[in-house]
Structures are given as structure tokens and as C-alpha cells.
């Protein structure tokens, strides 16, 4: 029989970052079903840091994470966690009003945002289909994150503080026992004061095992392909390119172009694989934007982005089941919010106040803890 203060279920970015925050203060065990930590959603992320992404309840956590990514603790990593790549949102003539609305919304928290006319857009991305795009908005400070380095640094530092990570340790039973939680895994039994549900697409399954009310979390499949280059040059300084309706985005990779149709298909928790029609959809939208079909597809994969019914984060103690904490609903923004998300979750787990830098960002966007609490679902 093993024992701990906090048992975290899930070894992806949500579980690893929270283990890092809690490790110096308590005994922590992380259990992970797979043999590799971060195998599912974390390991399949496209890894972007975009201020506007996720909406007003996500932005406080994104913006409050900025300084950690910019200047991580001295012992956290000696490799930069991000680099600037820029982000360009573009619009056809029929999308111009949406681009104008996006600019008015985003400039409030992205003051360096720039409006571009068609000529400026084509100067940055010359292989777009001629006369297809009429305008764009450009964020020169949008970043690409090193997901592997971030996740592994969280794990390494958590281990240095005594956190245990159990892989190949799927929970097969979880129940209350004498005022504590008793968890059963193939590697042994664990008694814990608090269960932290950071299981992503499997989070409702863990809740049901613990006899908690499930939240209606929905995993949604998203597809990515890496396509070989074409009969045109890709500028070395090309930004990430979105269309304003988020029907497609693409960015430069060492081996080609990463293309995503920004799809959201309801799916179930599992080792999700790309569907043929979604791969075709990605190629089709790219051809609409550029007039060129991909010549080769070097890689393809799919990942699950799991949302709460209102698409807001879920961070807090269950309102019925004692000592059952939720840290789920990361959707497509779990990586870019990880530092602040884990700091907020750790503070709530330990019954402390909201960290001041997070509180300030929440106040600026009228976000409250009630917006994140699982109790909002009744």
C-alpha cells in the first residue's frame, strides 16, 4: 500500500504541470495509463501561443503564463520554451467584416496588432492564390512553443521534488475508504487524501469511477498533416497563417508545411487516428487558399481536444464528492495556459488565494473563479 497527499490522474501537461506546483509542498503521485507520459493530446499539439485563442475566460490564463514562458525559473530549463513566429489572420472579401470585428476585439489585449492590406499580406505569404485575400491582421509577437521541452521540464523538476510518476498504471477502481481515497492500479494500491482529475478525454470516466457526477466533457478530434513543399518558395520568416473563420491554418516546419483544417469532430477517448476525409479536407482548404494541392503528405496525425459544455476551463473541487478536484477542459489551449493554469489549480487545491498576477488578468477580463468552478454545472 502506497500513500500520498495528492493523487493526480493523468500525466499530460495538466497533470505534469500541477505535479510541479504541488511537489515542494506535499507527497504527490501521478498515475498514467500509457507507458509514455504525454502520449495523447499533449504529444500531438501544434504548440502555439496566441493571445486571442480560446476566448475571454481562457485569455487570463494565457496572458498570465507569458512571463513564465519568457523567463522560466533558472533551474527549469536551459532551452528557450518558445520563439517568435508571428501570426497572420487573413480574409476574403466576404470575410472582411469578421476580420474587422476580430481586430477591434483583439487590439484591446494585443496592442502591437497590425492591420495589413492585400499587398502587405501577399508580401508575407506570396504563394496565396492571387486576388483571393483582401486584408489581414498581423501579430508579430505570436509564439511557437516547445511542447516536449515544457512537458519534460515539468516532469523532471517535479521528480526532483519527490513526485512519483507511475506509467502503465491505469486506474481500475477508485473509491472512498475511511475518509480517504483508495485507488487500485496494476502497480499497486494508493491511499490519497485528494484525487486530482487531470485525465483529459478520460476525465468523465474517472469521475464516474469515483461516483461523481460527470460534467458532459466532449473530446473533439482534430487533424494535422505535414505536407512536402510545392512549386513555390516558403519564406523563411513566414508567420503562422489562419483564415479568420479558422477553417484552416498552416505554418512552416523543418520538413514541410504543417496544415490543419481546424476541424472539430465529436469523438471518444482513445488513441485517435486521422480520418481519410479529414486529410482530404485539409488538402482541399489548402488548395483553396493557395491554388496548389499538396504533392506529398509526409506525416499525419489526430489529437483530442476536450471541452466542457460551455468551452471554459474546469478548475476546482467537486461540489458533492469530498476531496475530488477537477483540472480539465483544456480544449485546444492547455499548453499555452499551462503555467498559470497549474498555479491557479495548485492554489485552489491547497486552499490558498489566487496568485496576484492571475487575479489581475482575471479582473481585467471580468473572469471569476465561478467561471472555472465545476459547481457551475450544478
- Largest sheet, if any? 9 strands, mixed
Distance between the termini: 35 Å
Helix content percent band: 25-40%
What is the gyration radius calculated from CA atoms?
Answer: 21 Å
Describe this structure in words.
With 378 residues, this protein is of the alpha+beta class. It folds into two domains: 213 residues, FAD/NAD(P)-binding domain (3-Layer(bba) Sandwich), CATH 3.50.50; 143 residues, D-Amino Acid Oxidase, Chain A, domain 2 (2-Layer Sandwich), CATH 3.30.9. It is 26% helix and 28% strand. The protein is built from eleven helices and 20 strands. The strands form three sheets. Strands 5, 6, 7, 13, 14, 15, 16, 17 and 18 form a nine-stranded mixed beta sheet that branches. A hairpin with a 5-residue loop joins strand 14 and strand 15. Helix 1 packs parallel to helix 6 and helix 1 packs across helix 9.
